[in-house]
């Protein structure tokens, strides 16, 4: 393990979106998110704050169509930045898990920084929208992030009736799990946490 800070910046420009994501995995949870999608900005604030990851995210997208491309591409860029910042993962814990309550809702999130993208997402929303935000985009965001970061991610919401609370519990649960997984293991500071010797 080195003392080098784990940082990365990713930019993506397409006909649908222009995204820039910068992160510092060894930060204090400072977040500046301006994606044009208010609910996503709110969730990204939770993600950075509770994972102790500094995030700066800007996006311009085809919001006149809907939020889909912007949310999807922010997740994609954040996943790429996470993978780059993590490097070869020497010395990290690798696994994280959290059960996070948000009023009547509870989210259970587990992740493995394995390099292999698998997402199991079990959450039932009661409606189609949170304000103007399509609830389907919560899962879409995490699928794109996990695909690019190489995360094995399991999300389960055993209870909850308020869709805002459900989404917020998921993002906070992911953040707390990431905080554990990215932390350095004092017992294996110079080892990659895998019997294969690589992740």
Describe the structure using short key phrases:
Ribosomal Protein S5, domain 2; 34% helix; alpha+beta; 10 strands; four-stranded mixed beta sheet; 199 residues; 4 helices
Briefly note the structural class of the backbone. Answer: alpha+beta
**Overall pLDDT confidence:** 95
Please bin the fraction of helical residues: 25-40%
Tally the beta strands.
10
Report low-confidence residues grouped into runs of 5 or more: none
Question: What gross morphology would you assign?
Answer: globular
Continuous helix count: 4
How far apart are the first and last residues' alpha carbons, in Å?
A: 15 Å
CATH superfamily: Imidazole glycerol phosphate dehydratase, domain 1
- Tell me about the largest β-sheet: 4 strands, mixed
Named CATH architecture: 2-Layer Sandwich
- Radius of gyration from CA coordinates: 16 Å
In which order are the strands of the major sheet placed? 1-2-4-3
Along the chain, the helix and strand elements come as EEEHEHEEEEEHEH
Structure overview:
With 199 residues, this protein is an alpha+beta fold. The chain has one domain: 2-Layer Sandwich (Ribosomal Protein S5, domain 2), CATH 3.30.230. It has four helices and ten strands. A four-stranded mixed β-sheet has the order 1-2-4-3, with helices on one face. Helix 1 packs parallel to helix 4 and helix 2 packs parallel to helix 3. It starts with 6 loop residues before the first strand and ends in a 17-residue tail after the last helix. The model has no long low-confidence stretch (mean pLDDT 95).
